[in-house]
Amino acid sequence: MSDIDFKIRSRDIDTLLAQIESYNPAAELDIVKRAYEFADTAHSGQTRLSGEPYIIHPLEVAINLTQLHMDETSICAALLHDVVEDTGATLDFIADKFSPDVAMLVDGVTKISAMKNKSRTIAQAETLRKMLIATIKDLRVIIIKLADKQHNMRTIMFQREDKQRRIAQETLDIYAPIARRLGISRIGSELEDLSFRVLYRDEYDDIKNRLAQREEQRTAYIDGIRYTLYKRLTEMELKPEITGRAKNYFSIFRKMKMQDKTFDEIYDIQGIRIIADEVKDCYAVLGVIHTLWAPIEGRFKDYIAVPKSNMYQSLHTTVIGPEGHPLEVQIRTREMHETAQMGIAAHWLYKENKTAKNESYKDLAILNDINKLFDEANTSVQFMKDLKMNLYDDEIFVFTPQGKIVKLARESTTIDFAFAIHSEVGMKAAGAKVNGKIVPLRTKLNSGDIIEILTSKTGHPAAAWLKFVKSSGARYKIRSWLRKNNQITDEEEKTERKPQQKETPRAEVIIPKEEQIKLSKISENKRSMVSIEGTANVLIKLSQCCQPIPGDDVVGFITRGRGITIHKRSCPSLKRMEKEKERFVNILWESSPQNMYPIKLAVEASDRVNLLKDVAEEISLSKTNIIKVDANLRNKDHAVLKFILEVSGNKHLGEIIARLKKVKNVTNVYKLNEKVVIK
Ligand code: MN
After folding, report:
1. Which residues are paired to 450 by β-bridges?
2. Which three-class secondary structure state does DSSP give residue 621?
3. Which of 451, 458, 386, 382 is nearest to 421 (CA)?
4. Strand (E) or helix (H) holding 36
5. CB atoms < 10 A from the CB of 632, how many?
6. 582-585 — which CB contacts under 8 Å span 24+ positions?
7. 82: CA distance to ligand 1 center in Å?
8. Are 614 and 631 in contact (CB under 8 A)?
9. Are the C-beta atoms of 591 and 566 separated by less than 8 Å?
10. 451-455 and 301-302: which strand pairing?
């Protein structure tokens, strides 16, 4: 299942160079070789607890980074990451011999190193704080640190037992969640399993053994699904890759704990992953899956239309698979799959820009996401206040009282902050608190400040604001208001305006990056939905409320970003949608007898011996596949049998109902959600 390799692999510099060349043939291998030789010399004579030469560690960290296709600068920094701390080398020397960027990354990684002699909470808060600063500085620092942790955890058995536990706990609390947040699931899941093994050895072994025992059965089940799917998809000329998806040990353990379930209950849920060629194929595959197996309500998520902040994209759905087991399905393209494995590291994968200072090394959406970890770690206002991040010449990062990060130009004031939050907040600003203290509105902000704007219903902009406001957007709004309210004369305006200013009159409220993606993707999606309407590529879902089947009189409703949902014309939920006539489309059933549709059927009867057996027999006689049965006694002798059946259409269903009505003691047969009394 999980492919952790506990052996220490002795690989050498040639392994590293070959790996780099495999994804970047134009890489500057020379600088990498030099970094290796320097680190080798600097660490010479030092050994790790395993007894191996120390250089093996930085080398393995660098090799880990090649899995994420990182650039040469990061690889060099990985090779040199311990030289400042463990040998006599200085950062200036590294900057000079390699590059200032390499030195900056080494410095960042060194500074994150664990604090000694502090309580767990303080040490962890401290680590988190450093991680945040590092993230703001350059995301590569955090990725190198994660690769460092990955190798240290792989070799943790050489540590003393108490130390093993402390390190594993910190890894589970901080590093694994950060890797997950950044979408680097490859490292995240390995860190989880390695820590889990140290902290809960018995549970780890138990889950590992149970999984091994059931491997054969699982493979057979997944093979069955793959066969059914391949058959159907080949008819549609789609050839995606379908694989079973093994959960990592820790996620099984966490689910058992959090949902209070047994191993078998968690294990019952299988997962498959489908890798399609193109985005439109993903939706087509989803459509096929939803017609083969009944989707579970509320479990469909379209992360293609609305990607996560760490760029993760995929379609997720859970269906009732063969034998009634829930089946979790992920559908994505090859490119999305790489992003899912590498997370933010994939940022630099497709748009390499080696010379320019790459803007994407600092990403506000991810920053906000990492920042959420602070809230979860219950960190204090005090250390937020301590954050002094003088990182860039041109921008500062400040916080709302809720901990949201706002990026502003350097020398911005509380008024700029107020307008960045919302123009209404700016227009009504009456006072401001910085780090809990009331300050004049003209106060200039520093990175790390927490700002609270006090507004007043009767508040309005003042001409004096124009003297200190920094952002052109805010300035424009203030000036328009003043002019409209005759509080500024042309003369005043001229003296106020600095002659060299080149201003574009445009609002500068920051829309979070996720929102931007959401807005553009949705409109894009909607367009393509309408234009491909009626083709196999559109996502079609049979609605859960009325569960239409072929032959039923139906209508399609174009949902926002979720394709078309098919309802019966008689479905009560259509009432809610009536106003939006333009979103209804006509749907015709294709006559294809091979297609089977899952429906839920209820049979009520006064209980008797062999009732279930007789009912099930009638269903089989009508050549119907029973997916799931659920029988219970409503009261002493009133039985309700619920079935999930596969039917080809409403004619087929009619036959089944007619047969069941004749079974002795049956009082009522109806499609669930559509109760009709028959006797
Ligand atoms: Mn290290």
Report:
1. 399
2. helix
3. 451
4. helix 29-42
5. 9
6. 583/557, 583/558, 583/559, 584/555, 584/556, 584/557, 584/558, 585/533, 585/534, 585/555, 585/556, 585/557, 585/558
7. 6
8. no
9. no
10. unpaired
400 neighbors 408 (Cβ within 8 angstroms): no
d(CA 96, ligand 1 centre) in Å: 22
CA of 112 to the centre of ligand 1 (A): 11
Report CA(125)–ligand 1 centroid distance (Å). Answer: 20
Q: Specify whether the CB–CB gap between 315 and 290 falls below 8 A.
A: no
**How many residues would you count in the chain?**
679
Tell me the C-alpha distance between 222 and 227, whole Å: 9
Q: How far is the CA of 53 from the centre of ligand 1 (A)?
A: 13
| Mean model confidence pLDDT for the chain | 77
Q: What is the pLDDT of residues 107-151, one digit of tens each?
A: 888 877 644 445 555 566 666 666 666 666 677 888 899 999 999
Work out the burial of residue 474: count CB atoms within 10 Å of its CB; fewer than 13 is exposed, 13-18 middle, 19 or more buried.
buried
The burial of 255, by beta-carbon neighbours within 10 Å (0-12 exposed, 13-18 middle, 19 or more buried), is given as middle
DSSP string, 438-485: EE-TTPBP-TT-BEEEEE-TT----GGGGGT---HHHHHHHHHHHHHT
Which segment of 191-205, 514-528, 555-569 scores lowest on mean pLDDT?
A: 514-528
C-alpha separations of 275 from 227, 242, 286, 319, 340 in Å = 15, 7, 12, 18, 12
Q: Evaluate if residue 75 carries a pLDDT over 90.
A: yes
Q: pLDDT for 208-257, tens place per residue?
A: 998 888 888 888 888 999 999 998 888 888 888 898 877 789 988 988 88
Distance 146 CA to ligand 1 centre (A): 10
Would you call 590 a catalytic residue per the annotation?
A: no
- pTM: predicted TM-score of the whole model, two decimal places: 0.54
Q: Which two tokens stand for residue 491?
A: 């003369």
- Under a CB-based contact definition with an 8 Å cutoff, are residues 368 and 514 in contact? no
Q: Residue 456 in contact with residue 442, Cβ under 8 Å?
A: no
Beta bridge partners of residue 626, listed in sequence order: 645
Contacts by residues 191-195 (CB-CB < 8 Å, ≥ 24 positions apart): 191/146, 191/149, 191/150, 191/153, 192/248, 192/250, 192/251, 193/2, 193/4, 193/248, 193/249, 193/250, 194/4, 194/153, 194/154, 194/156, 194/168, 195/153, 195/168, 195/169, 195/171, 195/250
Q: Which of 366, 468, 495 has its CA nearest to residue 409?
A: 468
Q: What residues pair up with 645 in beta bridges, in sequence order?
A: 599, 626
What does the block give as tokens for 115?
Answer: 């604090």
From 28, 52, 86, 607, active-site residue:
86
Respond yes or no: is residue 5 known to be catalytic.
no
The amino acid present at 581, given as its one-letter code, is K
Spot the catalytic one: 12, 21, 85, 223.
85
Asked if residues 284 and 536 have their Cβ atoms less than 8 Å apart, the reply is yes
What is the spatial distance between Cα 88 and Cα 45, in angstroms, rounded to a whole number?
A: 14
Position of tokens 């926002």? 560
Hunting for tokens 């502090």 — which residue is that?
118
Taking a C-beta distance cutoff of 8 angstroms, is the pair 434, 469 a contact? no
